[in-house]
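seq:
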Amino acid sequence: MNGDTPVNVFGVLAFPNEADGGLVRFIDSDYNTLFHVPDGENITLTTFGDDRRILPCRYIDATHARIGGETFHICQFAEIQERNGAVYAPEHPKEGDVCDTYTIYQLKDASAASYAFMPYEQAKAKLRMAHYQRAYRGVLAPKVTLEALYAKHNRGSRPFGQRMRSLSMSDVIVLNRGGEEKAYYVDTVGFQEAKRFLNPPIRKRKPPRQER
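struct:
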């Protein structure tokens, strides 16, 4: 099979090519490559509600695959997971696989938080993860920037557009790259790293007063 002759595979008029090595390509919705899975191996899909599913993968051709018993164009699969706030990764990641994610947090009750929609300088002393709730989660390709995420979550067709407000000041984006998490506060202009969001300061207890 050299990719020149179409064949019917799982109901798809496909162009399988031996040069692909039987690898199923996984991308984000912007066609950035995340990883490849050999034909017959599995991915893990984690829903926004944290349900974890193991999905077997079958190679069809360079742009189609059978995933969890359903046939997808690889971009169609990525777009569906983006709309649902789900993330995916190889069941057994290899070196070079991109399994990074990002999570958006928004205040549980903006009317009750004194620093809602305030610049970082006014918010940093009061910033607490406990004041926030997870609003969205998605896969993260290597070259995707905070600015790109801000643009994505402010467009009319943004993911979770009916479930969360557009990304705005006082929201927090947590990037998980290579297993390392960093939190960034959406500021008046740009972003500020908010270390205390993930690592709140530990309050030292005062020793009890001794009665005389």
